[in-house]
Amino acid sequence: MNRFDASSTTDQVIEGISLEGKLAVVTGASSGLGLETCRVLAAAGATVLMVARDEDKLEAVAAQLLQAQPDAQLLTQRMDLADLNSVRNAATEILLYHSEIQLLINNAGVMACPLQRTAQDFEMQFGTNHLGHFLFTGLLSEALLDGAPGRVINLSSAGHKFARFNFDDPSYLRRPYDKWQAYGESKTANVLFTVGLDLRTRERGVRSFAVHPGAIMTNLGRHMEEADLVTLSEKSPSGQKLEFKSVEQGAATTVWAASSPQLSGRGGIYLEDCQIAATAVEGKSTGVEPYAVNQAAADRLWLLSEELVGQSFDY
Ligand SMILES: NC(=O)c1ccc[n+]([C@@H]2O[C@H](COP(=O)([O-])OP(=O)(O)OC[C@H]3O[C@@H](n4cnc5c(N)ncnc54)[C@H](OP(=O)(O)O)[C@@H]3O)[C@@H](O)[C@H]2O)c1
């Protein structure tokens, strides 16, 4: 029986689990949920490769973690997900030193930014939250498969409920930009990617999970204004005000996904509140929308993503 829920913390879900001998690669390690995830995985004995775009910030938080946990095995790598060349360079550098990876936590993200474009001209939320991670995972796939059994965790969001993925115009070239719609599309893409990835790697022991962490006050809200909280409450199917979790509660579902034996033999699924989510029903703010786990849409996104990053992957 799974005794965890929305109130469970990272330390509670990892209790009694050792990650010794495992290499965990975590993106967005410089802040919020990613940093807490690194702390807990390292405390459980994993070697943690902290990945972030701002080298100074990354070195500073890694030094802080090390001060609190002198035994922690921490490594750092710079990578800007909004530039596919930076993703390629980072993956090349990682593979120089690591031929096997057991855990990949695709956690970095941006939310509801004004219309911005990545180095390769993709809309920023789509480019950062999905495409950068799609390429990064593909480039690390051989090391993941060689390190099996392993898991890939993709941070999605209940925000996937805001929008289906838009295959016709993913980068807002021919339609008015809507920052929440774009966030929703990118977070739907995170779930579809999870479904597509799990299908390709499960026979070889690498399972994938999409995670909604809950609502947590982090730097993710940097682009938000007062009015956005009202917008978010209105978008909530239950019409309820958002209930916030602590960072330790927010990162708990990621850590549970990465480490729990209760998920053995599972994959290609969406998790929230340290549980496997049910299919969404109208009027409830929990659950996963059927369009986000649709196999045909997952296949279509896979092909589109390969085309956009200009590379296919032989899983
Ligand atoms: N907090 C919530 O309520 C919530 C709810 C649902 C889902 N999520 C998801 O949880 C994940 C983590 O969010 P968080 O709340 O921990 O937010 P956060 O504190 O803002 O952390 C986001 C991380 O992503 C990094 N990042 C942003 N753009 C990047 C880029 N171009 N290249 C590389 N790294 C980049 C940030 O780097 P910098 O430090 O340099 O900015 C930071 O390390 C996100 O995927 C988010 O969508 C969060």
Provide a descriptive summary of the structure in words.
α4 packs parallel to α5, α5 runs parallel beside α6 and α5 crosses α10. This protein has a single domain, classed as Rossmann fold, CATH 3.40.50. It is of the alpha/beta class and 315 residues long. The mean pLDDT is 96. β7, α7 and β8 form a beta-alpha-beta unit. The longest helix is centred in the middle third of the chain and has 23 residues. It is built from ten helices and ten strands. NADP nicotinamide-adenine-dinucleotide phosphate binds next to α2 and β7.
Largest sheet: 8 strands, mixed
Secondary-structure-derived class:
alpha/beta
End-to-end separation: 34 Å
- How many domains? The number is 1
Strand content: 5-15%
The 3D shape can be described as: globular
Radius of gyration: 18 Å
Provide the spatial order of strands within the biggest beta sheet.
3-2-1-4-5-6-9-10
CATH fold assignment? Rossmann fold
Give every kind of bound small molecule, once each. NADP nicotinamide-adenine-dinucleotide phosphate
CATH superfamily: NAD(P)-binding Rossmann-like Domain
Identify the CATH class. Alpha Beta
- Oligomer designation: single chain
Order of helices and strands: HEHEHEHEHEHEEHEHHEEH
Unreliable residue runs = none
Count of discrete alpha- or pi-helical segments spanning 4 or more residues: 10
